[in-house]
Amino acid sequence: MMLLRLLALLIPEFLIDLAFVLFVLSLVGCYLVAQWMRERCTKMKIERAQSQRARALERMEKMALRYKAQHGDVDTSRILSIPLAQLVEHLKKGSLTPETVLHAYMEKALEVTKEVNCVIDFLPDCEMQVQDVKKQQEKGLLFGVPISIKDNAGYKGHNSNCGLVHYLGVEDAEDSIIVQVLKKQGAIPFVKTNIPQSLINFDCSNSIFGQTLNPHNHKKTCGGSSGGEGALIAGGGAILGVATDVLGSIRMPSSFCGICGLKPCGNRLSDLGILSPVSGKSAVNMPGPMARDVDSLALFMKAVLCDELFRLDPTVPPVPFNDEIYHSRRRLIIGFYDTDGYFLPHPSMRRAVQETKSLLEEAGHKLVPFTPPRTEYALNELCIRGFFADGGTTLAEKFRPDIVDPNLKQQLLLYKIPNIAKKMVSFFMRPMFPRIANHVEAHSGCSSVKDLWNHYTAIKEYRCDYVKEWRKLGLDALLCPMLGPAFNIGHPGKLFAGFGFTMLFNILNFPAGVLPVTTVTSEDEEELKHYQGYYNDPWDKEVIKGMEGGEGLPVGVQCVALPWQEEQCLRLMKEVETVTRARCDK
After folding, report:
1. Which residues are known to be catalytic?
2. For 238, which of 4, 12, 289, 322 is 20 to 30 Å away at the CA?
3. Closest Cα partner for 185 from 296, 305, 278, 283?
């Protein structure tokens, strides 16, 4: 102590101040250097991933060109036009070889991705798998069919990154269960496809591989999070895809791209080996198929619901696909609604439901009005509050080493705001914008373990109420709106409420599928100009900006069934597809 006092007397005061300033400056300098190093490391990781992708696509192109040079007389366009069920028959009979079909789709996938940027990786062992498949004594239900898989579906020796730098550089130790089963059934995975950063967005862009475009209109997004799958299949570069759905990630891109997609109920298929940016969420990240027609979805489900799946993942109930229900011709009692009272659909969406309702009635089915109970409560209090139970902090952490994609900045800001601030913002916002205020407050999540337990209880009670309403009307299935048409690029991140049409059935854990039934007309576009929605708030104003210029784009409807009744859901989808096509053929 004496020494310190002596030094204090000997050292002038200004030198002490100078030392303090230098100390502070050194801390600031260290922080800035650390920031620079982190950003440089991030950029290097991204550049490395982009370089690996370029090499993979170059290798894919060389393999496709080599095969074409050796077999120049192949009618590629004819192969690409064959529906899945017929393609399997051709492959099993030997009128087409797995090599020919694989290379036809490789060539087309390259063409599509050059146009819309949907393929992010090539799986070169697909050529070896063709040979293995041909040696199988028993030909599987998907014998020789080339398939695409979403980025987050694990594939041995390749990276699943969820569009986040956080996961780059880590190779999957083994195939996901769903990929293993598909291989056992003779399918040939050959590419992986793009997704939005973190998967939690219905655009399709990330800081690693960039923006994927809609093949119907390049000013529009293809949807997300399974956007790469949707764009590739709609563009003709794949016939069947493996995707995942946690808030609508299969159904959104299916709607935007004009193809078919199915979200099974939780645990009907195995999600082992499927990467998620945040594991353990209350909503289920469910794998499911995307394809050009409903029969292809049904064939996928029949193929994967087999003994191999039940052996590899004993937590999946051993319930095979029920062909009898899918092919039944019994007249159905179908509930329907064209708006949920929370988010007013685009004019083409309501028209799509009403026209489909009329066609189903003409085909002999009974259509019954259905009102979904307490929609806003279910979306905010049950789905969002549970999905972001920690206020979004765990998800926000995954962005720390990343460059935030512009489409995610508004969402990420909400995750980063302290929960007390969210509650305050919500309080002051509520008089003017009650819908948005409730949405913001729901992002504060659950305040305690007891609160989380109460949340789970509330979900169960809501499901019971929904099923009770369903049973009261004696419904077999439900017909309802699907968000569409495709949004202009950059707008989905500003309108999280758009997930409302899909995430309701994630929190209910009902199987739900989407298929196209019509296209946007000039009359729809004109009516959109006068859109005010239910609240005339910033979200409603965003609808016009986000969805204008959509004439000619596909518009879909959503079909829903009770848990464990995927066959019934597909049955309704098939009925809708049949009556819609019959109208087009007239």
Report:
1. 150, 225, 249
2. 322
3. 305
* Residue 481 contacts residue 501 (beta carbons within 8 Å): yes
**Which carries the bigger pLDDT value, residue 159 or residue 137?**
159
Query: Residue holding tokens 């096509």?
Result: 581
Predicted confidence at residue 160, as pLDDT, reads: 96
- CB neighbours of 155 closer than 8 A, spacing ≥ 6? 123, 149, 172, 175, 176, 179, 189, 192
CA angle 131, 154, 195 (to 5 degrees): 115
Better-predicted residue by pLDDT, 284 or 580 = 580
Write the DSSP assignment of 240-302 as a string of letters: EEEEEESSSTTHHHHHHHT-EEEEPPTTSS--TTB--SSTT-SS--EEEEEESSHHHHHHHHH
| Count of alpha carbons within 13 angstroms of residue 356, beta-carbon side | 34
* pLDDT over threshold 70, residue 567: yes
Please say if the pLDDT value at position 34 is more than 70.
no
Cβ neighbours, 10 Å, residue 432: 10
Whole-angstrom distance, CA of residue 528 vs CA of residue 544: 7
CA distances from 246 to 200, 243, 381, 476, 495 (A): 9, 10, 17, 24, 17
In the chain, what percentage of residues exceed pLDDT 90? Answer: 84
What local confidence, expressed as pLDDT, does residue 410 receive?
87
The DSSP output letter for 515 is: E
Of the pLDDT bands very low, low, confident and very high (cuts 50, 70, 90), residue 7 is very low
Contact criterion met (CB below 8 Å) for 55 and 122: no
User: Could you give the strand order of the β-sheet that contains 240-245, starting from the edge strand earlier in sequence?
Assistant: 119-122, 188-193, 146-150, 240-245, 286-291, 260-263, 512-519, 554-560, 477-481, 333-336, 366-369
Q: What is the mean pLDDT of residues 441-446?
A: 94
Tokens 């690409």 map to which residue?
80
CA atoms within 13 A on the CB side of 209: 32
Whether the bond between 485 and the residue before it is cis, its omega within 30 degrees of 0, is yes
Which uninterrupted H or E stretch holds 119? strand 119-122
To 10 degrees, the CA torsion angle through 264, 270, 274, 278? 80
Q: What is the DSSP string of 404-428?
A: PPGGGHHHHHHHHS-HHHHHHHHHH
This prediction has a pTM of: 0.94
Residue 549: its pLDDT value, please? 97
